[in-house]
Design brief:
homodimer, alpha/beta, Aspartate Aminotransferase, domain 1, Aspartate Aminotransferase, domain 2, eight-stranded mixed sheet, 14 strands
Chain lengths: ~425, ~425
């Protein structure tokens, strides 16, 4: 749902309702629209809200959102810890917290990161954020001035690119292949930007089970990203919400593990391995950058909710998080296998898709001439939803692609949904 | 504590540690400091953190923060509702939410606002925010461009003024008297700004039990504020976290009640009447403005934590909130009475302070030549803390003032603290 609402910003080819309340700058009207900043005026109200409402109907099988399956939520353990917290320390868990996040939690999370990612992180290099969304936002706020250049994947999660654009950055797309963002392509674009007298500031990248492509970046590429960042004096925003949902073996080290000059801001979310309901994530970065993020967040939301922080602390300290990661990885692997089998069965032979080694997403390529947004409307008419490709491409390409999430639907619902999509595709490609 | 960390931005006359990591724009250094925006470079790291650490020591009696007394937290009721929620709908309360906030919650809150403030609010005129801090932030983001003029009280809560400054607004101070912001003074400054070819955009105002002065604005002034906003085509950000903590009779109608053209963004927090631990607040505004805030927040934090929203819904629906408001108002009235009696007893006769009719704060005026920041250091040495005046004044005046909160300390601790302050003041004014 969230992503659907976000998608509105990309403005699909549907008439939008941003006309209402518009007025010239010096004209008095009811409401505040004549006072909006230029950027706010450009924010379009929900053109997609009708589809959004359709998806909210219980009969719709949605493969759209990046929402986890509620079956994975460790509700019993959360309930147990919550009962203890409300009884034993209500004065703390119901009170304001510190802007960095509680020190004891950051200490516990430093151990978690050491254990899972193999990197040493000091407590002062961690700030709790209200979802990784806030991590992206804070980093962009500190690094981006109008006209700065931000590099993003083609395609990439639109939350990252839109946030950078929101601070006035010029977005430059960097192509991806089956192994994620291509460092050579990034290098060329950096060189072009510098030659053109522009100021490159950061690259936003999702190295593990990328959103939307599902691609995993090999170690050499991770290292190459850091080398480019060092050479061109830019930051890397490493958004990595899915890395623990690794279906075979162990996840590769994060890009942060190769960071030699403190250039990587590494965002690690608990939404997919714990639950999204408390908006818990952390940003890991060099001490001074983290300190800036802490100060900036004072005027954004003060602090992450204390109850969630205490809950996460207990959940991690008691070792539940590591068990939960195992459970979730197995769970989503089964779902991926199921989806891949269904695609083999139902989709036309001409269609291509990837086999993600983790995460939530399969990315489908239809081939020249296909219109995924038109297809989406047809699918929604048949009570099936997904995300069409264009919002993931800052150059509005990718019309022949769409993203399927295997995370949220149950097995039989997924079967029904894929059967519908397969039938529609076969009719279209006949 | 929060405010102490914020206070660092005002830069007390202590050497600060922002030197570290500074470098010219084109110079490569470890870390990202050469990439910071001009504004981020101006964010000072904690000069006050040592005092902050002192305050964190259990022996310090702090009258500094605007934190509620944990005794008021309805922990048993929260625990009961939480247990039900985790059992009955874990799939919802642990999942992502919508960016506006749940519709059923906004419906319930519309009834709450009707009941308590006497105003009719539609569901689409409400957005849940992560504390009123986020409400200020979102409004500022949508309304303020560099060079726009924002009017704030002299004094005012620095969260409001700093957030506006963070968007590049020019801040103009408007004097307060015992009845809050003076509309005539605002009118003069609006006229001056317009005459100087500037673009006034908003006034940030706290009409009830103002922070830091404790002053309450009479009805005529509220109406006059709206008239000025209409005449000069500006917005009013009405920050009203304390209004339900009314010690005698009923609170006056909010400024929003007099809003004829949809110009007031009314921020209503649950931190002081429920608890701060879930960061729950709402912003009420004209539909289009609220829609912009919803879109903007998509890229800031996506949504307020779902668990907190469900909890608040049940707490309000079951009528607990109204009981809790009664309890809290009585509780803080006793504390206010206690503080006022202690001030009478311990403070020198030459000192002036107000008698707030609600909220958390008493504001002390010492008179010409007094240095409240020096006094703060002396008090902290004696294990007592408060907030010195200057951070509340954008023109750095108010050196002879300080703010005492009666909210957080227990009765006997408060007595000890005021006795210490009284002794120090008598020594100083001898």
């Amino acid at each position: 749902m969230l992503e659907w609402v976000e998608k509105e910003k990309k403005g699909m080819n549907v008439n939008n309702d941003s006309i209402e309340g518009q007025a010239g700058d010096n004209e008095k009207v009811n409401g505040l629209s004549s006072l909006y900043t230029e950027r706010a005026k450009g924010m379009h109200a929900s053109v997609i809200r009708e589809i959004c409402k359709l998806i909210a109907r219980p009969e719709v099988r949605s493969m759209a959102g990046g929402w986890p399956d509620p079956q994975t939520f460790p509700a019993a353990k959360i309930a147990e810890i919550a009962a203890e917290l409300f009884t034993e320390k209500p004065e703390s868990v119901l009170q304001y917290g510190t802007s960095e996040g509680y020190e004891f939690l950051r200490e516990e999370l430093a151990r978690f990161v050491k254990r899972r990612d193999g990197i040493d992180v000091a407590v002062d290099e961690i700030v709790l954020t209200h979802g990784s969304t806030q991590g992206i936002e804070l980093a962009a706020r500190i690094l981006l001035e109008p006209g700065d250049v931000a590099f993003v994947g083609l395609p990439t999660y639109f939350g990252g690119s839109e946030t950078c654009a929101g601070y006035g950055a010029e977005l430059v797309g960097v192509p991806l292949d089956d192994y994620g963002m291509i460092p050579e392509a990034l290098g060329e674009r950096l060189e072009e930007a510098v030659s053109a007298g522009k100021r490159p500031k950061l690259v936003y990248v999702i190295p593990d089970y990328q959103n939307p492509t599902g691609a995993t970046m090999p170690v050499e590429r991770r290292r190459a990203m850091v080398e480019l960042a060092n050479r061109y004096n830019i930051a890397i925003i490493e958004d990595n919400p899915y890395r623990d949902l690794c279906f075979t073996g162990k996840p590769l080290p994060p890009i942060k593990a190769f960071d030699t000059e403190g250039r990587v801001v590494y965002l690690r979310s608990f939404s997919k391995i714990f639950c999204p309901g408390f908006r818990l994530a952390m940003a890991i970065g060099e001490t001074d950058m983290v300190r800036k993020m802490v100060i900036a967040r004072q005027f954004e939301d003060c602090c992450v909710n204390s109850f969630g922080q205490y809950l996460l602390y207990e959940f991690v300290k008691r070792g539940h998080i590591d068990e939960q990661i195992e459970i979730n990885a197995r769970f989503y692997k089964e779902k991926r296998d199921h989806l891949l089998a269904l695609l083999d069965e139902h989709f036309p032979d001409t269609v291509r898709w990837n086999r993600p080694e983790g995460g939530f997403f399969v990315f489908v390529h239809m081939g020249e001439g296909f219109d995924s947004e038109e297809f989406l409307h047809e699918a929604v008419d048949q009570n099936v939803a997904f995300v069409a490709g264009p919002p993931f491409f800052i150059d509005d390409s990718g019309r022949d692609t769409f993203r399927l999430s295997f995370a949220q639907l149950g097995m039989s619902e997924m079967e029904e949904a894929v059967a519908v999509l397969g039938r529609l595709l076969k009719e279209k490609t006949k």
